Every structure is written in C-alpha cells, then in structure tokens.
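Quick look at the format.
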Amino acid sequence: MKKKILIVDDEIHIQELISYHLERSGYIFKSAYNGTDALNMIYSEKFDLILLDLMLPEIDGIEIIKRIRLNDKLKNLPVIMLTALGEESDKVIGLELGSDDYITKPFSTRELLARIKALLRRSDAILETSNSSFTLGPLTLSEEKHEVYLNQTLIDLTFKEFSLLLMLFKYKGKVLSRDVLLNSIWGYEYYGDTRTVDVHIRHLRQKLESDSFHFIETIRGVGYKIGDTL
C-alpha cells in the first residue's frame, strides 16, 4: 500500500518541488499552506508521515508538533521538520517536543527522500509484533506493546525516544556511539551533527530518571550505554 504524506509549507515553489519528487517516488501526498488547514487535515485523515515547515501562517510548526504529540491517536506519527538556516533555536525546540527529524532549507531532494524512506521503514518496523521485554530496576519496556513503565506507571515516549531506549536495552552493557545510534535509528548520515541524539537522551533522562535512579551512562567523547546493573 502506498504511503500517504502531508506537506505543510506556505512556499508554493517548495510545495511544487516536493510534490513532484514524492509523486515520482510513488507516494500519495496532500498539501497544506497554513497551520490551521494542516491540523484540520491531520485530525480528519490518516497520514503516514508529515513534512512540516516551522514558519507557517496562523499556527506555527512548533505548535503543530506539540498538538500531535499530546494526541493519543497521533503521538507516534512521524514528523520531519523543514527549517531555515537561521532557525537554530526553533530546531532544538522542535526536537525536544518530539519531531523525529529535521532537514535544513535549501535541501537536496535526494536527501529528503532518503530520510522519508528511512523514517517510514523504522515506523513500520516498530509496529511489527515482537515479544521482547526488558526490566532494569523500576523500569520495564515492552517491545510488543510499545510501552514503557516506571514504577508501574506508564510513561509517554515519542516514537524516536522509544526506539532509542529499545536499542540501548538490546545492547545493554555495550557503549553505542552517537554515530551508530544516528545511523541505526534515523537511518542516514548526519555528517557529524549528533545533537539530535543528545536531545533525545536528555528527554529520556527527564522522563525516566530521578535523584535515586540513573540508568543511562554517558561515555565522554564516545556515546551512551545502559549498564548491566544499576
């Protein structure tokens, strides 16, 4: 079945460029030129991925990401931010709110298509049934149910946060470099920009760790790991 993508951008030439290449690649797509129309479409139709510009009329992209992640039915919907070179702070905010990826304008359509393909592939993979479960202290992860519990309380994680935590658990006791995490979870080269991993690790720590419970170790200059014991 063909994947359906929503392009949200108020620049007509960007819409035309992306639409042309999505159609050539076999995707179904729709377009929205402002935040209000985008949200109405997201709430009323089923999309497999959102391409979302941050600077939009009426409702900006940051607010749209926030509303998607707060909606139980939409919270795992993959989102790729489209950002301008000068939107550094917005880019970080978007990642912290739960955007799965970002690409900076002007961008290569080949790179954009590669990122779309990688994110859709990982989104499908995480939905496949698996019986793996992991427990460490008060923390329990179920790959089959796509759920994480802390002290028996269900914790709300984004798609990428869950994927990152799952990979750390699967390689428990081993140090995973930022580059390995990027290539395995995001599925492409970030050319040395590993900030997105650090942002997602920080979010996991905020949601899952406390003064008495720390499980993600930072290996300075290398990456991260979950230890065999607490």
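Next, a different chain entirely:
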Amino acid sequence: MSNFELDLTPLYRHSVGFDQLASLLRNSLRSESPASNYPPYNIEAVEENHYQITLAVAGFSQEELDLQVENGVLTVRGKKADDGKAKQYLYQGIAGRSFERKFNLADHVEVKGADLTHGLLTISLVKEIPEAMKPKKIEIGQSDNVIEHKSRDAA
C-alpha cells in the first residue's frame, strides 16, 4: 500500500460528531500491512442485523484461542501451546504462529457467541438497536378548538 494521507477536512466542515469515524478510517488505512492477512477471515451479513465473522484457524484448539470485546473492539488472539517436543519439519505449510486480529464493532453490535468447527472459528454478531433509538411514528391530531378572529372593523 502506498503512503496515502486521507484529508477529512471537508467532513469536519459540514458535520458534527464524525471525528471518531475519521479516526477509525485513518487507523484502518495505517494498520493494513502484508503481515496482517493472517489468519484469513470472512465477514458475512447473515440476515438483517445479524453478522458472522469466520476465521481460518486450522491447528488451533479452543484453549489456544481468546476472544475479548472492549470499547467496541473485538480482539481475537491465537497462541499455540508449546508441547515441549522439538519438531523437525521437512516442509511446514501450515501456519502455527501466534496472531492477533482486531475488528471495530459499530454501535449496538454485540457478540452473541463463537463456535470452533473444522478449523473455522465462527463469531456470531447481532445489532440490537435500543427501543429509544428506533424510529417512532408521530400521529398528527386535529384539534376541535377553532379560534375565531374578529376584525376591528366588524365591531
């Protein structure tokens, strides 16, 4: 990736409260590096307000994986346990290195669970918008109280 600097000044000129979004964009662009593509992952919209992150973590057991959510950031860590046996590989194509992968979660997105099956770690997410923030329809009533105006000339 080239050294690209993102200028978000126009965003600040016409909006309020998007400074966190701007920081998120800047940090996302800076953190992408060739080494950050391990382990590979998918992000999928399963249905409305339900998402799924799937990471390919072949060779890792449940005990070697750690998931945490803090301040809207989901962190997935994998650390291979050392079995104490020295191995002599003729070829090692299966990555067993430790990793840390972070995902920024939008407001009101919560982790509902995780499952490890056939080397794939699947993390279920749901966006639950609080009732107070959901759109409400406001009924417009009609008042029966009609105020009559008398002109000064009529009096």
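Residues 3 and 30 are 9 Å apart (CA to CA).

See the schema section for token definitions.
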